[in-house]
Amino acid sequence: MERFTAGLGRLEVWMETSNLGNDLVVVLGGGERPHIGGAVMATSDGLLTPLRLEGHRELDVLEPLACNLAKKLGVVVLAVGGIHIENATNDEISQIIKNCRELEECI
């Protein structure tokens, strides 16, 4: 298992990766209370299977993360996670998304 981080303070996000055979499992978390807000499975040919909890927006970062990694690596990727920041501003949400994209570059 590998762990990567991006950002600082309450805007810090982290990603843990683990191989399952030839495929990849990604756990994404961060903010003040990491949790499971959604999950998505992606194949290298672009097929996405999302799972979202009501009221959560994690798929906004999990879908591109899983899709891009699946295409890049040619494997099935399962990405799961959640990032919670209480009373996040639009600027903070934008920074969290940017930090998540930075994590993608670690693989």
Please provide the ordered H/E string of secondary-structure elements: EEEEEHEH
CATH T-level fold name: Ribosomal Protein S5, domain 2
Describe the main β-sheet briefly: 6 strands, mixed
The level 1 CATH classification is: Alpha Beta
Strand-residue fraction?
35-45%
- Say how many strands there are: 6
Query: What's the architecture, going by CATH?
Result: 2-Layer Sandwich
**Count of all domains:** 1
Structure notes:
The chain is of the alpha+beta class. It has a single domain, classed as Ribosomal Protein S5, domain 2. It is 28% helix and 37% strand. The protein contains two helices and six strands; from the N terminus they run E-E-E-E-E-H-E-H. The protein has helices spanning 59-73, 90-104; strands at 2-6, 13-20, 23-31, 38-42, 48-52, 77-84. The chain has a six-stranded mixed beta sheet with strand order 1-2-3-6-4-5. Strand 1 (2-6) and strand 2 (13-20) form a beta hairpin. Helix 1 packs parallel to helix 2.
From the structure above, extract its key features.
107 residues; 2 helices; six-stranded mixed β-sheet; Ribosomal Protein S5, domain 2; alpha+beta
Present the secondary structure layout.
Blueprint: E1 2-6, E2 13-20, E3 23-31, E4 38-42, E5 48-52, H1 59-73, E6 77-84, H2 90-104
Short description:
By secondary structure, this protein is α+β, with helices and mostly antiparallel strands. The protein is 28% helix and 37% strand.
